[in-house]
Write a structure and sequence with these properties.
Blueprint lengths: L6 E7 L4 H12 L4 E8 L5 H8 L3 E4 L8 H14 L4 E4 L8 H6 L4 E5 L11 H8 L3 E8 L9 E8 L6 H24 L11
Helix pairs in contact: 1-6
């Protein structure tokens, strides 16, 4: 099979960057035909930025607190991503809700990973929500990003069993492992043309 040009990817992060590391590792191993052009965090000093720099990837901090509005912050993000000439955006633990202005800049080409089987347990603390509710199966979801919170069209999901005796740490660790595999698998499908941009009506 003839391989096409690598997927040009921008990754937005806010924390440790374990999903980012899974992407970087897959690129290095040659199992994901992509190039991470830039990693941007809204928080300074997070581990995700160190992971990017260690992989030779441009790592930027654009603190959201430096901007008077969500829209002005998102405009700065869009400017940096366009300068890096990215085609797709991956949210890898990015703890900000994107504005319509950002969504219009990359229509149908923004994806997010969430540690639950959406539409169950959107928002923060999804693993804790699953434990509290007593479900027997949870997991993770990769979805397109829209104006809601974890409400965009689902691309792929992976189930994770909630085992007897699980606490937040053990369950979250297994969900993270599934996330790393699923996120890379979806990006591989995008790079190979099996998943294309999603544009909703209107």
């Amino acid at each position: 099979m003839t391989e096409g040009p690598p997927l040009s990817l921008g990754v937005l992060v806010s924390g440790t960057g374990s999903n980012l590391q899974a992407i970087l590792d897959a690129v290095t191993a040659g199992t994901l035909n992509a190039r991470v052009k830039v990693v941007i965090s809204n928080r300074a000093g997070v581990q995700a930025l160190d992971r990017a720099r260690a992989a030779g990837v441009t790592a930027l901090t654009i603190p959201h607190k430096d901007f008077p509005s969500r829209e002005s912050f998102d405009r700065a993000l869009v400017s940096a991503l366009r300068e890096a000439e990215v085609d797709w955006i991956a949210l890898a633990g990015f703890m900000r809700v994107l504005t319509p202005e950002f969504l219009r800049a990359f229509p149908g080409r923004i994806i997010n990973i969430h540690p639950a089987l959406l539409p169950a347990f959107p928002g923060v603390d999804a693993a804790q929500q699953a434990l509290g509710y007593g479900v027997k199966i949870t997991g993770c979801t990769v979805h397109f990003v829209d104006q809601g919170v974890d409400s965009g069209k689902i691309i792929a999901q992976r189930a994770v069993l909630v085992e007897t005796g699980d606490d937040l740490a053990t369950l979250a660790a297994r969900i993270h492992g599934a996330e790393h595999e699923l996120f890379v698998a979806v990006l591989r499908d995008i790079a190979d043309g099996r998943v294309g941009p999603f544009c909703s009506e209107g």
